[in-house]
Structure formats: C-alpha cells, structure tokens
Design a protein that fits this description.
Helices cover 3% and strands 48% of the residues. By secondary structure, the chain is mainly beta. Strands 2, 4, 5, 6, 9, 10 and 11 form a 7-stranded mixed β-sheet that branches. A 4-stranded antiparallel β-sheet has the order 1-3-8-7, with no helix packed on it. The N and C termini lie far apart (40 Å).
Length: 126
C-alpha cells in the first residue's frame, strides 16, 4: 500500500518562501504523476501543481500559483517538492500531496487522482 507523507509546512512571512516535500513509501512512484492540492476551511479543494512521471518532463500549474510556485520531483527518492515563493495570505491553507498512475492533464485540475496524503498546514503571517 502506498503512503504519501507531506512535510515542510509551517509559518512563513508574506512574501517569503517555503518548500514542501512529499515522500512516498510502499511502492515506487516513478511511473506516477505527482502533485499538490490545497483546501482552505469552507472552500473546495483546489489544484495547485503537478509533475509528470517521465522524470518530471511536464508540469501543470493553476493560474493562482503559476510563476510563484515550482514543482519538482526526485524519482530516486520517491519524493515530490513544492517551492513556494512570493507567498500571499491566500496561500495559507492545508496542502495535500497526490499521485496517480494514469491521470494527467485536465483530470488533475479536476482533482480526479487516486492517492492522497494527509496534508500539511501552511500559515502566512502578514
């Protein structure tokens, strides 16, 4: 059984940077697309970014984070990363890692992926 474990959440000042990590265990995810979603209280889950299985050759970003966030992966470490620059108050929420063997493109934007982590909270101070 695959387990996705996020880390790196915490408090960051507005405009500052923070990096999240998601390590997968139980199975190699080198052939899986991996990515990040976020969900604020009372709001729907929102797609953030995804990186493809072919050594991360392709990436997807939501309009709200493109140009500010960077997703990457290290297949040897079975880990996906999310570097968040120019943090804004609306970035303060729970970020969850996700993975899917068959899904790419629009299905990621719609959140139709098969595996999820528990989430890590990111707080932004003004």
């Amino acid at each position: 059984q695959v387990h996705l474990a996020e880390s790196g959440g915490g408090l960051v000042q507005a405009g500052g940077s923070l990096s999240l990590s998601c390590a997968a265990s139980g199975h190699s995810l080198s052939d899986y697309a991996m990515g990040w979603f976020r969900q604020a209280p009372g709001k729907e889950r929102e797609f953030v970014a995804a990186v493809s299985w072919n050594e991360g050759a392709d990436t997807l970003y939501s309009d709200s984070v493109e140009g500010r966030f960077t997703i990457s992966r290290d297949s040897a470490k079975n880990t996906v990363y999310l570097k968040m620059n120019s943090r804004e108050p609306e970035d303060m929420t729970v970020y969850s890692c996700a993975a899917d063997e068959d899904c790419w493109g629009s299905k990621w934007y719609l959140g139709r992926v098969e595996m999820w982590g528990q989430g890590t909270l990111v707080t932004v101070s003004s």
